Amino acid sequence: MPTPASSTRFSRLGVALRALAFSIVLALSAAGCAGTDSPAGPAAGRSAPALPDRVEPIAAAARPALPVTVASADGQQVTVTSADRVIPLTGSLNEIVQTLGLGPQVVARDITATFEQAAALPVVTRGHEVSAESVLSLRPTLVLAETTTGPAEAVRQIRDAGVPVLVVAPAKALEDVPKRIEAVAAALGVKEAGAELNRRTAERIAAAREGVPAGTGKKPRVAFLYLRGTASVYLLGGSDSGAGSLLEAAGAVDTGKESGLGKDFTPITSEALAAAAPDALLVMSKGLESVGGVDGLVKIPGVAQTPAGMDRRVVTVDDGVLLNYGPRTDQVLSSLVAQLHGKGA
Asked: Does position 184 have pLDDT exceeding 50, yes or no?
């Protein structure tokens, strides 16, 4: 379950990868390297600050006002009459429900939702695919999915059983954060809570962006790599990887996007890395672990020859939050800024 990120921009393969990463998940062991005064990025040898492996619900307890009928991203109209037993089928959606204050009503999770409040819930995915039987056995009153959730047959089986299934468009960039929160809040009948969460999230993202150094200095060039050493998967993020919006907000240049790599991910080649010439490499913490840390990373063909590889400049963020584009995105931005520019998160 993807989760080099469930979402979007991610093709089905990318989504599956992300899930893998996601659960994969949230232990936030930042294996990254924090920065020096160099504008190019972090220096090797210092770990990135660990992000808390939990969500922070809004203060007010939300009370669903139901029934509601909402539009699903797959073209369906979905009527929700009860939010008593909710099953979000991605870690990002689970995070939103929990942060809206409806954690007690969440009765299951997929493998990417491993943050503290969700970790003990039963898993309803097999590998990276949804098990319709597992979902239905828990008698959900609402299932939340993304357009990348699969297999399609399982989602159809759940819906055919009479369970309301709201499909949400996967996140691609920062501007998708409020849309996703609003969509989930509307389906749960807690629009006011959604508006409150959107205000809080926007304020925190804005505060995180204030940490980006002002001025016209050189922006660090960053290549996003998706790594799964145990499966020999080494991919370079392109314009659809989902990382571009975060890197730009953190005052950096996404080299995959700049290089014109239009797909979500492409296999890493020495030629592609040489063309990208990154000053720093962004990797998920589990991915870095899977290749044996920075020592193993620089052994991947082409990496050692880049400015980032030569200086061992590596930025890491936990798999479970990097591409979620949700209520904890401000933490991701703060971590990126700290590692790229040497500022405190």
From this structure: yes
